[in-house]
Specification:
Number of helices: 0
Order of helices and strands: EEEEEEEEEE
Shape: globular
Strand content: over 45%
Distance between the termini: 40 Å
Helix content: under 10%
Structural class: mainly beta
């Protein structure tokens, strides 16, 4: 059984760090993506990583970094220069191919809520 578990933290100085730990399947050859859903809005792709290739949505390009540690089966996402608009539930998801569409994901975590205070 594949499970994805997210956790998140807003750090002093205006940075967000979320992690996704996967069990039941190795992440080495999979694509792990981050999506987010703000209150009352649809869920959107934020960033993804497969092997050494990374992918970012326009709204986080230049202020975000996605990385992974295969030995820990964990993917990390950092977003800097936070604004209130970054408040959302952040989800990680796994797929077998490079695809940023929500319906291309095979497995999902339950999400972690992140609140950015004004």
């Amino acid at each position: 059984q594949v499970q994805l578990v997210e956790s998140g933290l807003v750090q002093a100085g205006g940075s967000l760090r979320v992690s996704c730990t996967v069990s039941g399947r190795a992440i080495e050859h999979a694509m792990i993506s981050w999506f987010r859903q703000a209150p009352g809005q649809d869920r959107f792709f934020v960033a993804g990583i497969r092997w050494s290739a990374t992918y970012y949505a326009d709204f986080v390009t230049g202020r975000s970094s996605i990385s992974k540690e295969d030995t820990e089966n964990t993917v990390y996402l950092r977003i800097d220069s936070l604004t209130f608009e970054d408040t959302a539930v952040y989800y990680c998801a796994m797929s077998n191919r490079v695809d940023t569409r929500e319906d291309a994901m095979d497995y999902w975590g339950k999400g972690t809520a992140v609140t950015v205070s004004s």
